[in-house]
Structures are given as C-alpha cells and as structure tokens.
Q: What sequence folds into this?
C-alpha cells in the first residue's frame, strides 16, 4: 500500500481507581498493580517538530539557520515570498543539505533601500535523506520476517492498486496477519518511528496515518516498514540495528485494505522521495526481485 508518513506521536489516557477508592485520570498507567484500570483511551496522534527555522543577528539584517533533530540529513528548500524592498543573500529560492544538529547561517535578508519600509515572508519544506546518496545495487536484503518461515507477496513492483507513484513503484506488500514479527531486512540506523495509530482503511484520510519504521542504510538509502500494529515498535530513533533484528509487529494501520506489511527502499533524489528496485535473498543464496503471488521464504 502507499505510504505518506509525517512524524507523529500520541498518548493514552488512563482512568483508574486506586486502593482508597479515589479516581485518577493520567497519561501514564498506574504504578500500583492493585489500582483498577477502568478505561484506556487512545488520544489522537499529533505532529512532532523535528526540523525548524531559527533567526539571529540584527533586526534590520536577520540571519537564518536550521535545527534538524532527525538522525539523518535532510534537504530543505527556502523561498522568499511577499517581497517588499527586500533581498536575500544568497538569492532564494535555494536548497540546502542539513546534517543532524544545528546548521551554520544559511542566508541573510536585508532591505534593498534601508530608508524605505520593507518586508517579506519565508516558505520552506524538507525531505529526509541526502540527495547525493546512491543505492548500492548489490546490497543484500533479507525477507523482513522470522527465519524458517514463508509469506506470500500480495503486491509487488508496479502493483496497480497502490504502487503506481514514485514513492511506492518498487514497494512490496507481504500478506502478514496482525502481530506477525517484523525483522530488519538490512542493517542500519533507525531514523523515524510512528507508533501511535490504531485504525486503517481505504479512505484517503488514512494515507498519512500508518504506523511505520524508517531505517537509514550505509549507502544513504532508507527502508520503510509500514502499516505496523499500534505501539509495537521494538526500536527507537538513533538505534543501530542488524539485519534480521526484530523491529516491530505487522498490523493494518493507515491506507490499507487488509493486514499486511508494506516494504520499500527509498532515496531522496532532490526534494523527492523515490523508491528503488531491490532483491531479496533466497534460501539458496540467490537474489531475486519479489513477484506478486509468489511465496517468499527466509
């Protein structure tokens, strides 16, 4: 299935009664096992900020820089709009590659004529990943499930149901029952975890509501594991994982017509995430592209 995944997080609301009969409402479960939980409500997931613009310097000549809290470089594009007697140095629009942490000054803005009124607006958007990265075509990907098991491929490269856009053209869907263990297909560093969605369906509103894990590989490509079950992620951003490591459990969250795992390898090709073809390791040691209707064995 297709995947458009912002970074979101959510909480649960616990309603419980303690041993003295007093009621409590909290976003944390009771520590005392004798307390009686009456209701647990999943709160709506909200967006968490990972990349933002900051300003410093003089009021008449501000300097702008970026904070990147992701565990991976991002590419960000700035544009100057609603310009009145203002100019940027260097000229915008312009793209920058921002490593994790705080960037240096990226650009400055000042009045063209300092004796006249001036003003402007700034717009920007970013994409995960370094646009200079190149996928290693010889990289080995293991089927992302337990060893000594087999799972059928319900949709493969170019699948007409939802693998038609650039982000998903070379994705594969594996027909996994809910709570099937999901394992890393390749070693890397976890850079994104969405873990708080609890619903799924084929309505457009679900396209940005899939639980997912994104892992950065050595060559700069990124694997996406999507439609995972609620709060079952076994990893966190910044964690190094090895090929075959348990990372979560499959589910049916987001834009999904049924329980399955969506797996894709993506690159930032210049302010655009694009899926790239890959091959899974077969039991005999050969590398094969996944085919719709075939049985994949680890």
A:
């Amino acid at each position: 299935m297709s995947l458009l995944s912002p970074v979101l997080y959510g909480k649960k609301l616990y309603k419980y009664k303690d041993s003295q009969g007093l009621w409590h409402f909290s976003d944390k479960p009771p520590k005392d096992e004798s307390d009686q939980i009456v209701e647990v409500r999943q709160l709506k997931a909200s967006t968490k900020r990972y990349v933002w613009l900051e300003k410093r310097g003089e009021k008449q000549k501000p300097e702008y820089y970026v904070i990147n809290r992701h565990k991976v470089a991002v590419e960000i594009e700035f544009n100057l709009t609603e310009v009145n007697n203002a100019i940027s140095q260097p000229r915008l629009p312009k793209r920058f590659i921002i490593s994790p942490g705080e960037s240096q000054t990226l650009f400055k803005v000042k009045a063209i004529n300092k004796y006249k009124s001036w003003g402007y607006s700034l717009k920007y958007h970013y994409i995960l990943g370094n646009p200079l990265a190149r996928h290693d075509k010889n990289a080995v990907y293991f089927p992302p499930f337990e060893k000594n098991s087999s799972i059928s491929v319900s949709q493969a490269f170019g699948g007409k149901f939802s693998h038609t856009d650039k982000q998903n053209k070379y994705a594969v869907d594996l027909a996994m029952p809910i709570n099937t263990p999901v394992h890393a297909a390749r070693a890397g560093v976890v850079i994104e975890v969405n873990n708080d969605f609890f619903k799924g369906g084929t309505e457009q509103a679900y396209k940005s509501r899939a639980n997912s894990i994104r892992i950065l590989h050595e060559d700069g490509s990124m694997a996406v594991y999507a439609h995972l079950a609620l709060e079952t992620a076994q990893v966190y951003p910044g964690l190094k994982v090895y090929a075959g490591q348990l990372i979560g459990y499959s589910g049916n969250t987001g834009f999904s017509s049924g329980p399955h795992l969506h797996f894709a390898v993506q690159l930032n090709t210049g302010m655009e995430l694009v899926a790239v073809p890959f091959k899974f390791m077969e039991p005999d040691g050969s590398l094969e592209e996944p085919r719709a209707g075939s049985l994949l064995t680890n």
Confidence is low (pLDDT under 50) at residues 1-6. The two ends are 22 Å apart (CA to CA). The domain at 51-128 is CATH 2.60.40 (Immunoglobulin-like). The chain has three domains: 10-43, 51-128, 150-297.
